[in-house]
Amino acid sequence: MSDEDGVFGESVAAHYDASVADRFAPEVLTPTVDLLAELAGGGRALEFGIGTGRVALPLAARGVPVHGIDVSRAMTSRLAAKPGGDTVGVTIGDFATTRVPGTFSVAYLVFNTINNLTTQDAQVDCFRNAAAHLEPGGCFVIEVGVPELRLLPPGQRAVPFRVDADGWAFDVYDTATQRMSSNYVTLVDGRPEYEHYPFRYVWPSELDLMARLAGMRLRDRWEGWTREPFTHESRGHVSVWEKPAG
């Protein structure tokens, strides 16, 4: 782990795209870019946690000017090396507090990145930072899962989500603090290697309150990027909060 790059240091960046290859599939990525381009209109887009540019690069290819904030130089160096990487601006810093020049039509966080902020204060700061960057009428978009606490029987804190011959993976929850972690044990040449990633899970209603504290209001919430209705059974959501126009 690199202290400078947080948990997304060189060892993670080197295989990150391959580890989320399914997220590059057109059926996943195209609706994501479609919605963000629509919300951007003719304006600029700001990505919090831009990483290796999975979303930023195809969005920029649509003609949307994109800037990103990320703490990891290891991750963003992969973005810069990709075709079109020179068209996307990147600022190194904590996206909960780092400011960049200008205003934006849309700011966004994808693929559970809000959970990388491991305190409620940092998540609240993130909403305030988004609002500060948005022009009047601009939108803040988050894609994040719904906490899967319904899978926890009494007395259990761990939920496995991968078990196979090459290793296993499980999430660990602390319902008193909303802290959680994803844990991976992988067999490499017959020996186990362990990776641990800390998060803080957050509820849709809690996010709405954070938006309200930042002066924004909920405009839309769907189950996913193709705008399916969000229901009691939804395991994730894409939510859009709007900064008042006046």
From TrEMBL:
<dbReference type="GO" id="GO:0008168">
    <property type="term" value="F:methyltransferase activity"/>
</dbReference>
<dbReference type="InterPro" id="IPR029063">
    <property type="entry name" value="SAM-dependent_MTases_sf"/>
</dbReference>
<dbReference type="Pfam" id="PF13649">
    <property type="entry name" value="Methyltransf_25"/>
</dbReference>
<protein>
    <submittedName>
        <fullName>Class I SAM-dependent DNA methyltransferase</fullName>
    </submittedName>
</protein>
<keyword id="KW-0489">Methyltransferase</keyword>
<feature type="domain" description="Methyltransferase">
    <location>
        <begin position="46"/>
        <end position="138"/>
    </location>
</feature>
<keyword id="KW-0808">Transferase</keyword>
<dbReference type="GO" id="GO:0032259">
    <property type="term" value="P:methylation"/>
</dbReference>
<dbReference type="InterPro" id="IPR041698">
    <property type="entry name" value="Methyltransf_25"/>
</dbReference>
